[in-house]
Amino acid sequence: MGIGRKLEGDFPPGVSDVAALIRAFDWSATSLGSIMEWPAHLKSAVSLMLPAKAQIVLFWGPEFVALYNDAYAPTIGQKHPRALGRPARENWTELWEDLEPLLRRVLDNGETVFAKDRPFYIERHGYPETVYFDISYSPVQNEAGEIGGVLCIVSETTERVVAQERQRLLAREANHRVKNMFAVFHGIINLSARSARTPQEMAQSLRGRLNALMQAKVIFPRKNGQG
To answer: How far apart are CA 79 and CA 144, in angstroms?
Structure first.
């Protein structure tokens, strides 16, 4: 029995924080069973996942028991490390109705699920937020082609998506202001044209009205009382 414990304690190899957590975890109390009993394709997937720099989470079996690497841990915030070795439903509760169908497509049907900037609602820092990920979910199969789990390679894109949306809103606001400016100019021209008898009078009227407009800061108003 001592030899068995030693062998189990040696897997998975590596010096990463999550590798150490996996070695110390009591897997016999989970549906995966003792590490000594893990199938070869599960061990292979874990061995490939842990040293990777990509953000990877592995959901195994019908309960989607979660294993992941150090790169992935920050993406779930306060859910780490309690999510490790637990069924996904327990720690991804707030988005389970969204996440489970994606995982089922892979585990039950053998599909590969891919999406860019996929939104997810999550509570990872004690408050709700919408985050965005590039995702690639694929089945982990044994030699007979039986699917044991779902390997999820993800990359969080929240910062980029939020920045792009901010730029889009700023561009829309700028476009709106330009349209307003041209509408004001059009009105001023019409007024000046109706009251002027000569081109010189029209030019003088336009200059006067534009100067008054700029003095009143109607075209480019300052916010918060600045300027």
So the answer is: 35
- Tokens 């109607």 -> residue: 218
Instruction: Tell me the pTM.
Output: 0.74
Residue with the bigger pLDDT between 222 and 37: it is 37
Residues linked to residue 155 through DSSP beta bridges, in sequence order: 134
Give the CA radius of gyration of the chain.
30
To 10 degrees, what angle do helices 199-216 and 158-195 make? 140
**Per-residue model confidence as pLDDT tens digits over 140-173:** 999 999 999 999 999 999 999 999 978 776 667 7
First to last CA, the chain: 80
| Closest listed residue to residue 25, CA positions, set 63, 89, 68, 77 | 68
Residue with tokens 């561009």: 171
